[in-house]
Amino acid sequence: MRRWMGLATAAFLALAPLGGAAQAQGRDLVIFAAASLKNALDDIAGSYAGETNRRVPKISYGASNALAKQIEQGAPADLFISADLDWMDYAAAKSLIRPETRVSLLGNRLVLIAPKDASVTLAMTHGLSLAAALASGRLAMANIDAVPAGKYGRAALETLGAWEGVKGQVAQAESVRAALLLVSRGEAPLGIVYRTDAAADPSVKIVGTFPEDTHPPIVYPVAVTKDSTSPDAAAFLAYLRSPAARASFERQGFIVLNRPAPGS
Questions:
Q1: What is the tens place of the pLDDT at every residue in 62-83?
Q2: What is the set of domains in the chain, with CATH numbers?
Q3: 3-state secondary structure of 47
Q4: Environment class of residue 129 by beta-carbon count within 10 Å: exposed (0-12), middle (13-18) or buried (19+)?
Q5: What are the strands, taking DSSP E only, across the chain?
Q6: What is the CA radius of gyration of the chain?
Q7: Are residues 168 and 157 in contact, defined by beta-carbon separation less than 8 angstroms?
Q8: pLDDT given at position 210
Q9: What percent of the chain has pLDDT over 70?
C-alpha cells in the first residue's frame, strides 16, 4: 500500500509542473486600451484569434489616465494602448512598460458633435462662439484635466478663444465614450469627441472638425507592460502593425502612423 501511494505521489508531482506550464501558456492575453479604440480593437482581436488559432484577447477599455493608474496599482495587463503620449510617458517614468516595445500606432481627429437631427452649423475658426449654440445646454467633454480627449478639447477651445465663454457649461465625463453618450442620448446639445467616436454612433453627427494646429498631436502609443508574462503579447503587438489591422483601423477612421511589421 505504501509503495502504491509513493508511486502515485511521484506521478502527481511529475505531472504538476507540466499542468501549471500549460495553464500559464493558455492564459488570456489582457489588453488595457483607450475607450475610443473599442470598435476597431474588438474587430482586430477577433481577426487575430481566427488567423492565429489563439484565444480572443481580453480587452479592458477606459480613460487612459485610469488605465495607467490601474497598471501602476498592479492590475494584470499585458499591453497598454493610450490615447495620448502623456499617459504612456507616465507609465514609462514609473517603469510600468518595456520601452523597447513602445510604438506610436495611430492618430485621430478632434470633432464637435451634435444629435443627428440638430440644425446647428459652426465655423471652427478663431472667435468660435459655442455659447450661443449651447444656449442653456451643456458641452459634453471627457475630463479636461486627465482624460486625453478632454485635454485636447480644452486646448482647442482655448486656441480658438472659446474656452472662457463655455467653461461654466462643460459636462465632464469619465471617458470620451461617456461624453459621446451624453450627446447620443440628447442630454447635451454639443460634445467634443474623436472623429472615430462620432463614426461609431449613428445617433450623432459631426458639426465641425477642429484644426489640427489648435491642440497637441493626437497620438496613440502602445507598449508591452513590464510585468507581462504572456507569450502572446509580442505576437499581438506585431499583429496591430499588420496590414489586416491597418485596414480595420482605417475603416473606423483612425490614421495609421506606423509602417507594417517586418514580414507582414
A1: 999 999 999 999 999 999 999 9
A2: 21-107+219-256 (3.40.190.10), 110-214 (3.40.190.10)
A3: helix
A4: middle
A5: 30-34, 58-62, 79-81, 103-107, 110-115, 139-142, 170-173, 190-194, 204-209, 219-224, 255-256
A6: 22
A7: no
A8: 97
A9: 88
